[in-house]
Amino acid sequence: MDKPIIKITELTREFRMGDETVRALRGTDLTISPGEFVTIMGTSGSGKSTLLNILGCLDKPTSGIYELDGISVKNLTKDELAEIRNTKIGFIFQSYNLLARTSAIENVELPLLYNSKESAAERKERAAEALKKVGMESRMYHIPSQLSGGQQQRVAIARSLVNNPVILLADEATGNLDTRTSYEVMQLFQELNDNGITIGFVTHETDIAQFSKRTVVLRDGLITEDKNITERFIAIEELKKLPKTS
Amino acid sequence: MNISNLFKIAWKAILLNKTRTMLTMLGIIIGVASVIAMLAIGEGSKESIKKNISSMGANMITIRPGAGMMGGVRTSDQTSMQSLKLSDYAAIKEQSVLIKNVSPLVNGSGQVISGAYNWPTSIYGASPEYLSIREWNVESGVIFDQSDVNSYAKVAVIGKTIQENLFPNGEDPIGKSIRFNSIPFKIIGVLTEKGENTFGQDQDDIIIAPYTTIQKRILAQNYLQSIVASALSEDQAERAVNEITAILEKTHNIDPSEDNDFNVSSQQEIINTFSSTSEMLTVLLVAIAGISLLVGGIGIMNIMYVSVKERTKEIGLRMAIGAKGKFILMQFLIESVLISVTGGLLGVLLGLITTFIISTFLGWPVSITSFSIILSFIVCTITGVFFGWYPARKASASDPITALRYE
Ligand SMILES: Nc1ncnc2c1ncn2[C@@H]1O[C@H](COP(=O)(O)OP(=O)(O)O)[C@@H](O)[C@H]1O
Ligand SMILES: [Mg+2]
To answer: Where is the ABC transporter domain (chain A) (predicted)?
Structure first.
């Protein structure tokens, strides 16, 4: 088996609120290998976002070990974490978080502006390529307000892909979308995964989880279930089953 | 990360908020423009005073009776106002080696009459050297000479204003007779026109005659109102002042512990007196303009602060995709410097236009120095950095998750 991309051991995360301590993660172990498509499930408040933020190097654990692509994240400085976010991770948010009044291609270019020494032309090319991967090549110069929710999320996915990260992390990426659009986005994730991209996907919807290959269930900061999906949904098929008018 | 990318990011943010940026800039534009215009006015008036005083004769030294000057006003009583005598003039003429020319000066005012025309004016009594001390010339006719002085001759040289008022029909005044306070004088020369001096006095409203004549026939006084001299050169003026002071201290028998009953000053000192007044005015004007620049700077801080608050989510996103804190700091700093420097450039332009309008339509003397432009430009950049720093610092210290959650 390949060297794991993500390996966490005995991970805890506590939030101090005055003299009360919220234990969002209470000793979690998880390993994700290259090519996997893992959904992290759980009810609201179970610690999914907290876990994903740590995996995405946006947050640091209170204790435990986290190794990303062979690097121990624990002792890294803020700047080093920023660099890892820039080069190794593609993060996708529920609310897309595109820059307003800024064209799709410029939004996708953004991560490149913060590290590479590429020329403006090369940046444009890579951004256009990423937009093509998500089927948005015809909307490169549209600004977010001219795009539907599904299209905006596609642009956001293109932005997460542009730096060739080792893993895509999505937090309720379909949470703001209707069923059909959600499935279309899942189809895109399946395509990307089929092309070898590793995906960590947070959701609380069971049907969405069925599109992945493996489900991890969190409950009160502990992993209670970790199983491979047996009857996996294929997005193209599921889309056909949906009523035409929805 | 290269700096040009940060410039690109900052520039884009500015373009996305054109109206707001323009309004922010307005404060800086007005501040810089007023600093430049005020400095131009201050500098211009200083230069024009200097030029005018110099045009009275750059080497000129004036000896007045009475003790020193107090803020430009002589503080003396009646007797000390009569302390200068012809013997002082003679002593200076004889002993001083640093002066070229010297002339006593007496003057009185009254009515001058020629035929049916009359005109109120001043008459000056001087030696023939007086005109070269003042660097004046005759346009037609001649200047009186030493023999006219010796013989108390009733001859006079008149200014253009006198000619225009006494001979309005254009006849040649040379050889004509005029009466000043009923004493007749024969006109032997007309002075070249000089116009007004800095203080608005008409320099052509003047009659000059031998001092002997004026002292004896008009004023009936044996003291002098002043003595004027010209130093050998402008550089020698200060030394000449000291030399004359020493000569007069001796002739007046003044003890070192006593105050002098006369006052010797060079043109440079007069320039300094007036310059310092106009300098004070300049400082005041620039201080006011500086305050408006400061207010403009606070405007930048205000806008950058609001902008950081408003764009918290954007900052969070930028950090989430890999922007380091220092990049965020730089972005906002560059934004505020771009605003202030662009505002500064426009301000310089507006300042130049304003100055041009002031000089063209109000006719005020102005002088734009590269110093004033460089100064306001530097102040502008510093303003941008200084007032942009706090909000930028705040932005860069954000925590990405908290910033992303901000609504
Ligand atoms: N910044 C925070 N400060 C305090 N408590 C927090 C913070 N973030 C999350 N929590 C708490 O941690 C627990 C898990 O939250 P979260 O990971 O957001 O849940 P989920 O994403 O599964 O809905 C919740 O009880 C939540 O209140
Ligand atoms: Mg959540």
So the answer is: 6-245
What is the residue with the minimal CA distance to atom 11 of ligand 1? A24
| B222 φ, ψ (degrees, to nearest 5) | -105, 5
Task: State the pLDDT at residue B188.
Answer: 94
Q: Check if A102 contacts B (Cβ < 8 Å).
A: yes
> ipTM surpassing 0.85, yes or no?
yes
Report the percentage of chain A scoring pLDDT > 70: 98
Domain boundaries defined on chain B = 3-52+273-404, 84-260
One-letter amino acid of B333: L
Rg (CA), chain A: 18
DSSP run (H or E) holding A120: helix A120-133
Q: What pLDDT is attached to residue A158?
A: 97
Q: Which two tokens stand for residue A105?
A: 């291609």
Q: Tens digits of per-residue pLDDT, B239-292?
A: 999 999 999 888 888 877 777 888 888 877 777 777 777 788 888 888 888 888
Fold of A34-48+85-241: Rossmann fold (3.40.50)
**Contacts with B403 from chain A: Cβ below 8 Å:** none
- Cβ-Cβ contacts under 8 Å, B314 against chain A: 99
Structure tokens at A43: 């009810």
Q: What is the pTM of this model?
A: 0.73
**Residue B302: is it exposed, middle or buried by C-beta count within 10 angstroms (0-12/13-18/19+)?**
middle
Structural domain boundaries of chain A?
A: 34-48+85-241
**How far is A51 from A46, CA to CA, in rounded Å?**
10
